[in-house]
Automatic annotation (TrEMBL):
Xref: PANTHER family: GTPASE DER (PTHR43834:SF6)
Name the UniProt record assigns to this protein: GTPase Der
Gene3D superfamilies assigned to the protein according to its UniProt record, in alphabetical order: 3.30.300.20, P-loop containing nucleotide triphosphate hydrolases
Parts forming coiled coils: none
Protein's organism: Rubrimonas cliftonensis
Job of this protein: GTPase that plays an essential role in the late steps of ribosome biogenesis.
Domain (EngA-type G) ranges: 15-179, 216-391
Gene that encodes the chain: der
Length: 482
């Protein structure tokens, strides 16, 4: 069957826009304005943004990829600021358009002049934006921006949404140029024969099967300095996220779409989570809150531990949080390259896992070395396994045969001499697997009997490593036609 790539739709992103500038000029506020969501953390103090964050920008009928970058610093050593600067330089090199933003209320600073000179020598499509241009002081600073030699400044206020029509007017001809180029490439593309996917066999309609074309959402969480960003970089195969020996480098929960072994994933790198009592600063509270949201929207949570200090109290809290949120969990122990007696240490880790996290019984425990890129294949297999289990559905007929066997094996108690009767059960949803049993006196069933049933479901249906939700409903026997 002949296949011709479809023409790019008007709503598809047509170019990539990088927002750059010195710290605290409002880049993240503008980023949030363009993507229409509060994706990037915003605070009054400078230097909040450290990693690159991408989103789909929308301005009237224009669609584009917008990149939020760290504040530009005039450093070239191996400090944290210098590593942030190199990430921003990379974003500039990969962008189709660079929007250089200054603070109109502060006017043109020496640092603005330095980076304007760098951008001017680099060439390419460069726009000059004067943010915080509301009011008389802002307009004065916007006029001063002419001195940077980057063309006519675009005055706007990202916080109040003023001046967006001027930014639209500057971006529209650029978008038209890229749309014309894309249309030309599409028209000249040769026809390609594409084989239809091979049918591997019929699936049992009772089993939940995740769509393989939809990215699996993963959140990598853990204490500060466990190596979360290093692990995500290792999975990506490139230095996409800021890393270093300093604890607490990551602040935003950065989501990255990748192809990992032929399967699409969306991986969220999150800020390190310390004990709540130690989190005092507003910015760290925002970062932790961002990470908690990533856990709630994830499908699989990778809890990353440091091999030198595994299963500390905070690790247990983080893993328990993921379980309570109903996420599938994988425990990954990082910095495995530093461990001398690996076999003995692995036995210790498995014993501690079984003892300290019984609610995650059967969840995979994988050892990795993010800095050396080892163990990533095992990690991917573990993620795919628990994700498939998390999506599993079991036919009602199978469940009721199973329930009959379990009740015959261990009958419910009979408080006050009246037997509790479990009528039937069904799976009401997956993600995580959730079951509902109907009985005549659910309020009298002890918690120990629910644990008996949940443990049996794990054992008999292979539901290891995922949370199981089990509830009851009081009802009469529906088959009793009196």
């Amino acid at each position: 069957m002949a296949y011709r790539p479809p023409a790019m739709s008007p709503s598809a992103p047509t170019f990539k826009l990088a927002i750059v500038g010195r710290p605290n000029v409002g880049k993240s506020t503008l980023f949030n304005r363009l993507v229409g969501k509060r994706l990037a953390l915003v605070d009054d103090q400078p230097g909040v943004t450290r990693d690159l964050r991408e989103g789909e920008g929308k301005l009237a009928d224009l669609r584009f990829i917008v990149v939020d970058t760290a504040g530009l610093e005039d450093v070239d050593d191996d400090s944290l600021q210098a590593r942030m600067r190199r990430l921003t330089d990379r974003a500039v090199a990969e962008a189709d358009v660079v929007l250089f933003v200054i603070d109109a209320r502060a006017g043109v600073t020496p640092l603005d002049q330095t980076f304007a000179d760098i951008l001017r020598r680099r060439g390419g499509r460069i726009l000059l934006g004067a943010n915080k241009a509301e009011g008389r002081a802002g307009l004065s600073g916007a006029m001063e921006a002419y001195s940077l030699g980057l063309g006519e400044p675009i005055p706007f206020s990202a916080e109040h949404g003023e001046g967006m029509e001027a930014l639209y007017a500057a971006l529209q001809p650029i978008a038209d140029t890229f749309a014309d180029e894309a249309a030309l490439i599409t028209a000249q593309a040769p026809e390609t024969n594409v084989a239809l996917p091979e049918v591997l066999g019929e699936e049992d309609e009772s089993d939940g099967v995740a769509d393989p074309s939809r990215p699996i959402q993963i959140a990598v969480v853990g204490r500060p300095n466990a190596g979360k960003s290093t692990l995500v970089n290792a999975i990506l195969g490139e230095e996409r996220l800021l890393t270093g020996p300093e604890a607490g480098i990551t602040r935003d929960a950065i989501g990255l779409e990748i192809d990992w072994g032929g399967r699409p994933f969306r991986v969220f790198d999150t800020a390190g989570m310390r004990k709540k009592a130690r989190v005092q600063e507003k910015l760290e509270k925002l970062s932790v809150g961002d990470g908690l949201r990533a856990v709630r929207y994830a499908e699989v949570v990778v809890v990353l531990l440091d091999v030198a200090s595994s299963f500390e109290q905070q690790d247990l809290r983080i893993a328990d949080l993921a379980e309570r949120e109903g996420r599938a969990v994988v425990i990954a122990v990082n910095k495995w390259d530093l461990e001398k007696d690996k076999s003995a240490r692995l036995r210790e880790l498995r014993e501690a896992f079984d003892r300290l996290l019984p609610q995650l019984k059967g969840a995979p425990l994988v050892t990795v070395s993010a800095i050396e890129g080892r163990g990533l294949d095992r990690l991917r297999e573990a993620v795919l396994k628990v994700h498939a289990t998390w999506n599993r559905r079991i036919a009602t007929a199978k469940l009721n045969r199973w329930l009959g066997d379990r009740v015959a094996e261990h009958a419910p108690p009979a408080p006050s001499g009246r037997r509790i009767r479990l009528r039937y059960m069904t799976q009401v949803k997956s993600r995580p697997p959730s079951f509902l049993a109907f009985c005549n006196k659910p309020e009298d069933l002890p918690e120990s009997y629910t644990r008996f049933l949940v443990n049996g479901l794990r054992r008999d249906f292979g539901l290891d490593g995922v949370p199981i939700r089990f509830s009851y409903r009081k009802t009469e026997n529906p088959y009793d036609r009196k």
